[in-house]
TrEMBL record:
Key words, A-Z: Cell inner membrane, Cell membrane, Membrane, Transmembrane, Transmembrane helix, Transport
Domain TRAP C4-dicarboxylate transport system permease DctM subunit: 123-584
Example of a GO MF term: transmembrane transporter activity
TM segment ranges: 21-41, 53-71, 78-99, 111-128, 135-152, 190-212, 239-266, 320-339, 360-379, 385-406, 442-466, 472-494, 506-533, 539-556, 568-587, 593-615
Localization: Cell inner membrane
The name this protein goes by in its record: TRAP transporter permease
InterPro entries: DctM, TRAP_DctM-Dct_fused
Membrane topology reported for the UniProt record: Multi-pass membrane protein
Endpoints of the signal sequence: none
Highest taxon in the source lineage: Bacteria
Natural source organism: Vreelandella sedimenti
Pfam families assigned: DctM
């Protein structure tokens, strides 16, 4: 069987050498899945279980096609194909059994027959295997550990294991029938809320992002960022921050964001004078910020809205200020390094012109405007996503038609039957490409949500969430800061094996009740804090996935680049703390209080960046750096007089640094 031209490795599964027949099969299944999602989002909504079961079945078939059983570098062989055929059947059975027997299953709820249990076991194994291939072995191991934990107890399948459990983790134990019913036949397992969000809101917006990417929106955002900042000190690095904010707002992956924007920004940063590790770290930190940037927030906005029963638009609105604060911090780090190392911007003739960029790509802003307008009208996010996809397709087609019939003839390209045929073929190819890319991009997040459903189901069945809350309260001694540090460490450990979305789901189920009930953190703030901390595995050594991606492009050492990313992404750790102790910036309050909190937060983050780098207007000695660090603690403490004192100290330290710079002769670059 001949090997086909392979898709780019940026595309999920693009690094796998596939036979032509498999590539065609992937395209057919992916396009079918995307069309099904569009149909159910905008034409005929389906019932909860019908939507989720069909979605999961198609996603798993796609996962088994995209990712061979023995890894991307080995051909399937007879054994590989045999395993795949078994799991294809398992995927179809997982979805088909529910669709065809849903009424009967509901009628015998709690009294499952042997066929129900057998299919439930097959479905669970199939989901875990699809997750292993699409997400990674860590996710599957955590799902298996959850199931084993459910069995461990005097009345469970593994009574001997229950004897080894610490007292606080003990429970009665459950039989295979009870666990299988909970995971497959109920609303708290595989087909629970996480998969429900993935099968509706997340998929349609991932598809929207795929069409933006296919039609050239990525280049538009990058060019716009360069046109805006390219001539400033450290221009390419600042462009990386802005482009990552733009791309990240429509992208579902920090790593994909690094690869997409970093291919342009990292080489230019190095050329300007940034060290390779700095260039990779800046891009990783900025791309991670894209995951907390509205409107999508890497699918997090939809999950937070569902878990907190808060309108999606409200989640978007309260997330804007924290996201701006994060990007402002990274931007200031970039600016300080440029000043410190005496960098200049790029020459004007090497940069795109803003007027030309807007002329060529203004139409990419229309779908985003439609999206915001429909959300403001309180339309369902799924329907909004549908109309956003339709809008970008309509705008792309209309713009190309106008160019083809009115502009091209003036440039010596006459309209002929052959030319029309070529244009239609190209347009159809782009449409198929967008539908396929959207489905490919959704595989990992959907599988992560399915296994997260297993974990959530076990937590609900065994009462692990309440036990975890008791442990958290005991270990922290009732101290909120220690509790938040525990959440941060737990998110880092989980992030080593789970993608961000799954890490958030698992963490909020475990620690959310403790944060809200025991420590009095408002519900929405608790969810945002856990979601922000779930991002830390992208930039925190030793497992800094976005940092590793940046290092690969920059040609630097992965660990050094990760430490740089960790430094630039300090807002990821500080801003959630500020949310907890100053919740007015999230849940609202008197306007003067909200404005005051916003101003002091931005001032504190900027001062922290200067103190960490030891430079602002000129080199900063240790004394003001220590004073600023102490003042930041004061600003974060929820007491007006303490906040004012902290602000005063920071202003004095920054003012003294500015006066020192005025007294100096023209500064020479400071070595990094």
């Amino acid at each position: 069987m001949s090997e086909s031209n392979q898709p780019s490795s940026v595309v999920p599964g693009g690094n796998v050498i596939q036979p032509r027949m498999v590539l065609w099969s992937i395209t057919i299944v992916a396009v079918g899945l995307s069309l099904f999602q569009l149909y159910s989002a905008g034409i005929q909504p389906l019932g909860l279980f019908y939507q989720r079961s069909i979605h999961l079945a198609l996603i798993m078939v796609l996962a088994f096609l995209m990712f061979p059983a023995f890894g991307p570098t080995r051909k399937r062989g007879v054994l590989g194909w045999g395993l795949d055929l078994v799991f294809f059947a398992g995927a179809i059975l997982t979805g088909g059994y529910l669709v065809l027997n849903l009424d009967e299953i509901f009628s015998r709820a709690g009294f499952w027959n042997s066929t129900d249990i057998l299919v439930a076991c097959i479905a669970t194994v199939t989901v875990l295997e699809a997750s292993r291939r699409a997400v990674g072995f860590g996710m599957t191991v955590i799902g298996l550990l959850a199931i084993v934990y459910a069995f461990a107890g005097p009345r469970g399948e593994l009574p001997w294991l229950g004897e080894w459990m610490p007292g606080i983790l003990e429970h009665r134990g459950y039989t295979i029938d009870r666990v299988a019913g909970q995971l497959y036949l109920g609303q708290e397992g595989i087909f629970g809320l996480p998969l429900g969000v993935a099968a509706t809101y997340i998929f349609i917006f991932v598809l929207f992002g795929a069409f933006l990417e296919c039609t050239g929106a990525g280049k538009f955002f990058i060019d716009m960022a360069y046109a805006a900042t390219g001539r400033q000190r450290g221009g390419p690095a600042k462009a990386a921050v802005l482009a990552s904010a733009g791309m990240g707002s429509i992208s579902g992956s920090a790593i994909a964001n690094v690869v997409t924007t970093g291919a342009f920004t990292i080489p230019l940063m190095k050329r300007l004078g940034y060290k390779a590790k700095q260039a990779g770290g800046i891009e990783a930190a900025a791309s991670t910020g894209g995951q907390i940037m509205p409107p999508l927030m890497g699918a997090g906005a939809f999950l937070i809205a569902e878990y907190t029963n808060t309108p999606y638009l409200d989640i978007v609105k309260v997330s804007i200020l924290p996201a701006i604060m994060y990007f402002a911090t990274v931007y200031l780090f970039v600016h300080i390094i440029a000043l410190k190392q005496g960098m200049q911007g790029l020459p004007k003739d090497e940069l795109p012109q803003m007027r030309q960029v807007m002329k060529d790509g203004w139409h990419f802003l229309l779908p985003l405007a439609v999206l915001v307008w429909l959300l403001a009208m309180s339309m369902s996010p799924m329907r909004v996503g549908y109309y956003a996809v339709v809008t970008i397709l309509a705008v792309a087609v209309l713009r190309y038609v106008l160019w083809f019939f009115f502009v091209a003839p003036r440039q010596g390209q006459p309209v002929t039957a052959t030319a029309v045929k070529d244009v239609v073929r190209t347009g159809f190819t782009k449409l198929i490409e967008g539908l396929e890319l959207g489905a490919r991009n959704a595989v990992a997040v959907s599988m992560a949500c399915a296994v997260a459903g297993i974990i959530v189901g076990v937590v609900g069945l065994t009462g692990l969430g309440l036990k975890f809350s008791s442990m958290m309260l005991a270990f922290s001694g009732g101290n909120l800061v220690l509790a938040l540090v525990m959440v941060l460490l737990a998110s880092l450990v989980l992030g080593m094996g789970l993608p961000v979305t799954a890490s958030y789901i698992v963490l909020i189920v475990l620690v959310g009740p403790a944060l809200t009930a025991e420590f009095g953190v408002p519900l929405l703030v608790a969810h945002l804090v856990v979601f922000w901390y779930s991002q830390d595995s992208n930039v925190t050594p030793p497992i800094a996935l976005a940092g590793f991606a940046g290092a690969a492009i920059a040609g630097s050492k992965p660990m050094e680049t990760s430490f740089q990313a960790w430094k630039f992404a300090k807002g990821l750790y500080l801003i959630p703390l500020f949310m907890v102790f100053n919740p007015e910036i999230i849940i609202g309050g008197p306007v003067p209080v909200v404005i005051w909190n916003g101003v002091i937060a931005i001032l504190a983050l900027g001062a922290f960046a200067a103190a960490l780098e030891g430079y602002l207007f000129t080199k900063m000695s240790w004394l003001p750096r220590i004073a600023i660090t102490a003042a930041i603690f004061g600003v974060f403490y929820p007491n007006l007089m303490t906040e004012i004192a902290g602000v005063a100290v920071m202003i004095v330290a920054i003012g003294a640094n500015w006066l020192a710079s005025k007294r100096e002769t023209p500064a020479t670059p400071v070595s990094g």
